[in-house]
User: Fold this.
Amino acid sequence: MNSRRSELNIVQPKSLADQIHAEVQRLIAAGAFQPGTSIGIAELARRCGVSQTPVREALARLAAEGQLVFTRNIGYRLPEAPTMKQYTDWAVARVVVESNALLYILGPIDTRLLDEAQRINEQIRSSDFGTTAAGIRKFSELNWRFHAALIGLARNDMLTEVHARLYASPQFSRIFLGRGVANQAEVVAEHERVLAGLRRGDRRAAADALRDHIVDSLERDARLSHLSGSIRRALRGEPPLGDLDAADKD
Assistant:
């Protein structure tokens, strides 16, 4: 009995700092903060009902991960809106991480995660997100959960962590404010193609469908913003058009 007990790993509950880190990361991914917004330690501690110590630790971690910017004697804030090069770099990173993750699913595909992704996609299909910040946050969070479920199929904690950081970095959900979620039907249909490939057990088809979806959706989104360029050019190893070309001339 004693030897059996000694083989068990002790499960440690998440620390307050871990919980605050995860919650702020979720809010960033959902577009709850505008680019450049300051995040005060005292205010966040008050809202979370905790002392400032775990909040300070969580924000320091987020800054180390590049999700927040820390300025001495000023504090923490979200990064400013990304340039075309930053947006393109983010898109390429998402393609590399997300589509390739589906090629490295070990063992049988977890149908429970597929069913969860299907339910989330149905929510995206049936929801009227409107044009308000709350509606856009709802869409962003559902979309994040769909893609997180796909990453979960790889059963790789490091990929899950990298994916979470990718979703929390750029602040592009704001481009839908006042416009609504453009191409909602296309997003749902593209998600369905990924799921169909996975249900057939065709990892390559699913990875290709996910790659196409990421590129198509991000290029659609970029056209709504101040940016101009081509993610497809970057994926072919060519410099994207737009402000990246201008930067190359400087």
Notes: The domain at 84-236 is CATH 1.20.120.530 (Four Helix Bundle (Hemerythrin (Met), subunit A)). The radius of gyration is 20 Å.
